[in-house]
Design goal:
alpha/beta, Aspartate Aminotransferase, domain 1, Aspartate Aminotransferase, domain 2, 2 domains, three-stranded antiparallel beta sheet, 14 strands, about 15% strand
């Protein structure tokens, strides 16, 4: 008999974190590894936000915070939704958590019963499927291909819905593909979901502000959708605050209360100092965020031009985030020396061991014929990394 629960035994390790750890291990041995596996901005937190955090320490924000977050932060989040998304929430419909990942976990654990189904478009962010499994739900995967910019269709959704469907998870802008659903595409999806009013939409919008194609559009903005949608967001990506661990959710009051109840029995409130810093982030304007977005946009264009020079790889054009998710089917079956590339993991390990570049195999995101490359690195590092990858892949025959 195992000493561990089936729950933890059935849970997979995060391959993104695993590749990052392999990269760190090699660096500690003196190997010059360029890590393009990581999912966070390489910029520092803007100074005004850091100053707010320092002041919060001096002001003795060193005690437990309320479980759903400080009212001042929740009201700042309400104002953010009103100004940026044309969405009206009461602050009691906002729950602040220890990162957006906890917000997602709270929603799924509050909603899903054993055996109930959650529709997840593929490619998906690594934790979606594992969080559904943790809730004892059944992930229903819908494959989106590169030819359709990695976006699923309303027809696919309708065909996947069953009597057991409890929720659908949407991620726009997307990690790992950088794809963005337009307002028209969201409206077409909503038309299908309106036929099934009991299905809850979980909309992960954490990359909202790293968007190269125009204003973000949330499915919650469509008539009839807000009342059945949990919008997940946070300050980590837009404000380079990944380590501050502040995410948040906006949802109907019945779901917000459930998530508050769950969080009260797991972690309680998020870090007090980080919450005060998050208020400054939301109220300080978008100047620094826009500067970061422009840098990512330039890097994206640089990365696409270098990727086009590498044989056996095809790509789409990521419209947001800081990842590119190229198809590697033209490389599979090739070899060099002791290395035989039969899978995305084979290629990832080949690049790590020979080119000393860390990327993430696409199977971590449900797409084994792809790899994810982060361009949240300096242009100098990106040029060197892609030069190394080009040389290594060109050796394969």
């Amino acid at each position: 008999m195992s000493k561990l629960s089936d729950r933890i035994l059935n849970l997979s390790d995060s391959q993104t974190l695993a590749m990052a750890q392999r990269s760190r291990d090699l660096k500690e041995k003196g190997v010059d590894v360029i890590n393009l596996s990581i999912g966070e901005p390489d910029f520092g937190t803007p100074q005004c936000i850091k100053d707010a955090g320092k002041k919060a320490i001096d002001d003795n924000y060193s005690h437990y915070s309320p479980v759903p977050g400080f009212n001042e932060l929740r009201k700042a989040i309400v104002e953010k939704f009103r100004k940026e998304n044309n969405l009206e929430y009461d602050f009691n419909e906002i729950i602040v958590s220890n990162g957006a990942k906890q917000s997602l976990a709270n929603v799924l654990l509050s909603l899903v019963n054993k055996g109930e189904e959650v529709i997840i478009p593929t490619p998906y962010w690594v934790s979606y499927i594992e969080l559904v499994k943790l809730a004892e739900g059944v992930p229903i995967l819908l494959e989106a291909c590169i030819d359709n910019d990695f976006k699923i269709t309303p027809k696919q959704i309708e065909q996947a819905i069953s009597a057991k469907t409890k929720a659908i998870m949407l991620n726009s802008p997307s990690n790992p593909t950088g794809s963005v659903y337009s307002q028209e595409e969201m409206e077409e999806i909503a038309e299908v979901l309106k036929k099934y009013p009991d299905i809850i939409i979980i909309s992960d919008e954490i990359y909202e502000h790293i968007n190269y194609v125009g204003k973000h559009f949330s499915i919650a903005q469509i008539d009839g959708m807000k009342e059945r949608t949990a919008v997940i967001n946070g300050v980590s990506k837009a404000y380079a605050m990944t380590g501050w661990r502040i995410g948040y959710m906006a949802a109907p009051i019945w779901l917000a209360k459930a998530c508050n109840k769950l969080q009260g029995q797991t972690t309680s409130g998020a870090n007090s100092v980080a919450q005060i810093a998050a208020i400054e982030a939301l109220e300080s304007g978008m100047e620094e965020s826009n500067r970061m977005r422009e840098a990512f946009h330039n890097r994206r264009d640089l990365v696409m031009s270098m990727l086009d020079e590498i044989p056996g790889i095809t790509r789409n054009v990521p419209s947001a985030a800081f990842y590119i998710f190229p198809n590697i089917e033209g490389i599979l079956g090739k070899s060099y020396g002791k290395y035989l590339i039969l899978s995305d993991m084979d290629l990832a390990m080949y690049l790590l061991e020979t080119a000393h570049v860390a990327i993430v195999p696409g199977s971590a995101f449900g797409s084994a014929n792809c790899i994810r490359i982060s361009f949240a690195a300096s242009e100098k590092e990106l040029i060197e990394a892609f030069t190394r990858m080009h040389q290594a892949i060109s050796l394969l025959e």
